[in-house]
Design goal:
This is Probable malate:quinone oxidoreductase. By secondary structure, the chain is α+β, with helices and mostly antiparallel strands. 33% of the residues lie in helices and 24% in strands. Helix 1 (21-33) packs across helix 13 (443-454), helix 2 packs across helix 13 (443-454) and helix 2 (83-104) packs across helix 16. The protein is globular.
Length: 501
């Protein structure tokens, strides 16, 4: 869809900064709750979903904790902690319900354009890791949402599940894998574009591309925010006054949160992590694999660097990726500036930044090692998953930029958080989203939390409660505690989204 330049509404109810999956989701929700809301969306790039939401910039796994081993850490006593996996699985089921609602309403017309079924597998080798995966399987399958998870240490069985992973593998190597057939591959770029195309056609909504928010200040009467926006095509600057501002600018959110200068935002910092994929260019190899196969992360690796051999469907074509290989750049956005990190350091976050840096020296060493890796070393990492891999079948592709959250901590001064963090003003007039994985997959739950924080009175009204249950039928009823409801919801979303059961 070609977007026609629109006149800026200088006094909207809502301003959304960033045209990614988060702003798109929040915008749709708010218009469903209150159709007469006026919304202005500002995006610094000249296209939507150009950063973290783009298909090449994220894993597209539909993170549901079915295969990601970093969501089920092994505790000191040898037990497996399932709490994070349960939370993430519940959040992804919430996203699936919302997307099914959108398809039923014809807001999104072709579910196959953004979501497809694909098995999610975990794969490990070595005695210690096999023991871990066996315990993980036993722990997770006690909970109904994970009941369908299969486990095997048989080479013959694994050859059927993932032929290219097992081809020419040492028959004496002790390996194990789990498999969940209800996994998905999600193109968040395609989904974001579909949501914003719909929003763009609604009364009271204007989407402005190539417009950069340069400043955010609270009005003297504290009832509105003044947002300074620059049109990057002609240099024209505009002041917009809004009752509510959402900063969903990915790695750019931290700088804008600092400009807003709310007390709740003090002390937050960011640690950028870049990445690369190996992208397969041999159609024969691409078509020989149909699964998302996740391994165990190296010690000290950030969550976005969990290695996986990943079948994708991107813009109608099948792709095969391996990685991502972590790296370091001082940019906060793929299309950002090398000054992003240094200019984010303020007196208010200096101590948390230094403390987190000192506490995460192993991560720094890991990232330096990753940056220095040769092509041959990258190929060796791939051969752990695919023994027959040849470099001529693969090429490097730049992945997205992520900014991990650094926050104040009374005990350590500052800690590095791997996840997402919603920071909101006390009066609910502004909210910012910081952080990374699992991000897009749990966007619906994250945006519901933003609405609860920032529109608490409206959210308690009968009208909004009724609407949220239309959008998410299981709302307020944890699926982990309701096996029948879990099955019912999965059956409905699978049918509407054209997925396996």
């Amino acid at each position: 869809m070609t977007r026609i330049a629109k006149t800026i509404n200088k006094k909207p109810d809502v301003v959304l900064i960033g045209a990614g999956i988060m702003s798109a989701t929040l915008g749709i929700m708010l218009k469903e709750f209150q159709p007469d809301l006026t919304i202005e969306v500002f995006e610094r790039l000249d296209f939507v979903a150009g950063e973290s939401s783009d298909a090449w910039n994220n894993a597209g796994t539909g993170h549901s904790a079915l295969c990601e081993l970093n969501y089920t850490p092994e505790l000191e006593d040898g037990s497996i902690d399932c709490k994070k996996a349960i939370t993430i699985d519940e959040a992804f089921e919430t996203s699936r319900q919302f997307w099914a609602f959108l398809v039923e309403r014809n807001i999104v017309q072709s579910p196959e354009s953004f979501i497809r079924s694909i098995p999610h597998m975990s794969f490990v080798w070595g005695e210690e890791n096999v023991t871990y995966l066996r315990k993980r399987h036993a722990a997770l399958t006690k909970y109904h949402p994970f009941k369908g998870m299969q486990y095997s240490e048989s080479h013959d069985q694994l050859k059927k599940w993932m032929p290219i992973v097992m081809k020419e593998r040492d028959p004496n190597q002790h390996v194990a894998a789990t498999k969940m057939d209800i996994g998905t591959d999600v193109n968040f770029g395609a989904l974001t574009r579909a949501l914003l195309d719909y929003l763009d056609g609604l009364n009271g909504v204007n989407i402005h591309l190539h417009h950069e928010v340069e400043d955010i200040e609270r009005e003297d009467d504290e009832k509105k925010w003044t947002i300074e926006v620059k049109n990057l095509d002609n240099g024209e600057e505009t002041e917009v006054k809004a009752k509510f501002v959402f900063i969903g600018a990915g790695g750019g959110s931290l700088h804008l949160l600092e400009k807003a200068d709310i007390p709740e935002g003090k002390g937050f910092g960011g640690f950028p992590v870049s990445g690369q994929w190996l992208k397969c260019i041999n159609p024969e190899v691409i078509n020989a694999h149909h699964a998302k196969v996740y391994g165990k992360a190296s010690v000290g690796a950030p969550p976005m660097s969990v290695p996986h051999l990943d079948s994708r469907m991107i813009d109608g074509e099948k792709a095969l990726l391996f990685g991502p290989y972590a790296g370091f750049s001082t940019k906060f956005l793929k299309n950002g500036s090398y000054f992003d990190l240094p200019t984010s350091i303020k007196w208010s976050n200096l101590i948390p930044m230094i403390s987190a840096g000192l506490d995460n020296i192993p991560l720094t060493k890991y990232l330096i090692h990753e940056v220095m890796q040769s092509e041959e070393a990258k190929l060796e990492a791939l051969r752990n998953f695919m023994p027959t891999a040849k470099m001529e079948d693969w090429e490097l592709e730049i992945a997205g930029q992520r900014v991990q959250v650094i926050k104040k901590d009374d005990e350590h001064g500052g800690v590095l958080e791997f996840g997402t963090e919603v920071v909101s003003a006390a009066d609910g007039s502004l909210a910012a989203l910081l952080g990374a994985s699992p991000g897009a997959s749990t966007s619906v739950s994250i945006m519901l939390n933003v609405i609860k924080k920032c529109f608490p009175i409206q959210m308690q009204s009968d009208e909004w409660q009724q609407k949220v249950r239309q959008m998410i039928p299981s709302y307020g009823r944890p699926l982990i505690e309701n096996p029948a409801l879990c099955d019912e919801v999965r059956a409905w979303t699978s049918k509407v989204l054209k997925l396996n059961g």
